[in-house]
Amino acid sequence: MLLLCVVAFLGGTVGGAISPQLFSPRSVEAQKPNGVNAEEFLLLDAKGNARAGLGLDANGEVGLVLRSKNGERTLTLSPDEPSVIKLVDRGGRVLWGAP
């Protein structure tokens, strides 16, 4: 009887000590993002048409392009161009610009 009590006590003690390491979920910490790197970012509408873009051209110049819903007008912002801000029509004619 004494042996049974000792075995039960030791089994309970060892099981109680080991079970948290075996059966409890480990804590997970989120990693801090370092950023997203790309040469171009596009914003597409539901039909897959590019409506806005941020990117670099072949010369490494940065630009932001916003296109109207019907594609008739495009607003560009580029600090490397002579006209920093331009509004152009579909044919490429400048409707408005600012240095």
Write the layout of secondary structure elements.
Blueprint: H1 2-23, E1 40-44, E2 50-56, E3 62-67, E4 73-77, E5 85-89, E6 94-98
Explain what this protein looks like in three dimensions.
This protein is an alpha+beta fold. The chain is built from 1 helix and 6 strands. It has one helix at residues 2-23, and strands at 40-44, 50-56, 62-67, 73-77, 85-89, 94-98. A 6-stranded antiparallel sheet has the order 1-2-3-4-5-6, with no helix packed on it. A hairpin with a 5-residue loop joins strand 1 (40-44) and strand 2 (50-56). The longest helix has 22 residues, at 2-23. It is rod-shaped. It starts with a helix and ends with a strand.
Descriptive labels:
99 residues; alpha+beta; 6-stranded antiparallel beta sheet; 1 helix; rod-shaped
Q: Quick gist of this model?
A:
This protein has one helix at 2-23; strands spanning 40-44, 50-56, 62-67, 73-77, 85-89, 94-98. With 99 residues, the protein is of the alpha+beta class. It is rod-shaped.
Q: Which class best fits the helix and strand makeup?
A: alpha+beta
Name the poorly predicted regions: none
Could you spell the SSE succession in H and E letters?
HEEEEEE
Count the beta strands. 6
What does the main sheet amount to?
Answer: 6 strands, antiparallel
Q: Count the helices. How many?
A: 1
Give the helix proportion (percent range): 10-25%
**Sheet with the most strands: spatial strand order:** 1-2-3-4-5-6
Tell me the radius of gyration. Answer: 32 Å
Taken as a percent bin, the fraction of beta residues is 25-35%
Mean pLDDT: 82
| General form | rod-shaped
Distance between the termini: 97 Å
